[in-house]
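Q: Predict the assembly, please.
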Amino acid sequence: MGKRGQDIIRAVLFVLIFGVTLLIGYLTAMQHDKRWDVSRAGQNTLDARSRRIAGELSFDVRILAFCSLGEMEKDAKALLDLYSLESRHLAYEVLDPDARPATARQHGITRYGQASLLGRGRAVTIDVITEEGISNALLKLQRDRKKNVYVLSGHGESSILETGKGGLSHIAKSLERDGCEVRDLFLMRRSEIPQDADLLMIVGPEASLVPEEIDAVRSYLKRGGNAFIALEPHTDGGLKDLLGGYGVDLDDTVITDPSTKVLGSDAAVPVVNSYNEIENLGRFRLATVYPTARPLWTKNEPPQNVTVSWLARTSENSRADTRKAGSGEPVNAAAYAPYKKGPLNIALYLRTILSPHAESRAVIFGDADFLTNAYLNISGNRDLAMNCIHMLLNEGLLISIDSRVPGDRPFMLTPGQGAFLFCVSVIVIPSLILAPVLFLNRRRTRK
Amino acid sequence: MRSIYFKELSLYFSSPLFYVIAAVFACVAGIYFCNAMAYVSLLSTMITQHPSFPGIRMDSVFIQPVFSDMVMLVVFFAPLIAMRFYADEKAAGTIELLFTYPVSDLKSLLGKYLAGWTVLTTVLLLTVPLMGLMGLLTRPNWGLVASSYLGLVFLGGAILSMGALFSSLTKHQIIAASLTIGLTLIFWSVGWFAQVFPGGTAGTVLREISLVNHVSPFLKGSISVKDIVFFIEFSLFFLVLAFEAIDSNRLRG
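A: Predicted assembly structure:
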């Protein structure tokens, strides 16, 4: 072999070895990747809770995202990349449902933007590929079983089956989407709350529970059960004494808030945007709306082992009013002598330590209407309700990840301003760059 | 290396080519800027008519489109800077003279490459006044602006390294520039074919070697070690190929 041949072999070997070294370096960088997000709202970073959920995965999860080609596909990939960075158990594929119709059908995909998460032999489908959707779906896959939510009926409460404005079908559907089994509970037919109940919901009873039913609720709470109770003004469902035992006082007042008139409703619809930092509610920032609500008072000295914390409060402009709600009288909060000025507790959180390893928790709202189909989708009502329920179900990690980042200030240009900016950016700046060339040319010409 | 670097820089800055490239770059970038500005103004008008419409995110409707367009400018302009690295010397017959310099081929290559990179960065910095205009109109996310410039600088470095290779292979500058643009576009679009191999290694490889997949995160404000390492290694690889090509030229005399 001539010298030239040897040189070629040496060069090829050198390039190959160098290439392999670079490849190893890149693979190492991939494994130990570190990112800095300089976008304004942290749009390139997962929420801390999502990172925790993905990071704690102990089984393989495959995400099949069905997207149309283009922006939707790009956005899905960008989001799923962030998840796959957090866990080696997570793999994803972005598929075009038109190109893979059989696969789409197999996973029950009916439209663009849906995704199927496969793991532990189960599948969870989400309708929109968002961080909230994926994190929730991962949580569902991590669960060993479905959570049982019982909704009390038989006292004029709204029904989970009712799809009209006064029904609870929307919240029930939301819970089912989150992997819960929602059941109607007619307590008069049984002596106790079912043993498999993870949560008992009592939403706006119009008639009082009979003493046996109240005893069943009491014993349920004493055995470590969790309850979500929403009471309308003037009707306490016979729960006044039971709640009194937990340091909660109910009276016959309603909350009025003259400042809510600004938002287009009357004074009997308080708007709340003050929330206590309890578990996952610390980040809650959305306003919630309560049509006819009652204040919830706390006793000065709650019983031993019981902690009562306020969860949501009305504004300082609100008042506890003695007016009978729904009486048909014209609403004029100022006309009524204030019973007590705000801020008023509209939701409370009770935590009872039963033993070193057992506790019972309850969330009480001074309004039941906000859960109904008519009001659930208003502002942050659904998010707050779902957050509270998940907190009670010991799934406090999620669930509401607020992606509503406020927009920037818009600007409108007049034709004159537009022309000025065009001239500066397209004519003036390039001309200034070209000026040295013209100067040099002129000097050369003179010479 | 330093002497080559400064010699190349002085050649660039005393050549009308640099000013023409910079002026055309700034002019086209200005047009893209005005286009995005007009779109935001139109969106703003719509918002005032529909108060329920959510606010504008300048990051995604103003800054990102301007820089996404500027990326394509870099793809076409960086080869014009790189084309004269060696092709110019070959055409002028000064390549032999270069080989007689008391500097190694590697240092000579690095000097030329870094000078080209400096020139490209200067061209990019000439668009900073546009960002100043943006600052007058709205409150831009300067972190995103900086990250986008960083992405363009890294991309430019990668393209210049390909340009160095082709410039060392031919004495025709236009051929060197054309081949550089061609290879850049191949590395640009190769990720699109990853769809053909979903879930497979081939798909992953195609995605990972695609330039667009590594520059996009910078334009979205996400700076990652992986992307920086990619651009550095990509540039190093082509510089090594260029070095071998120069070495071969020298041996052939």
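Chain A has two domains: 48-141, 147-392. The mean pLDDT of chain A is 83.
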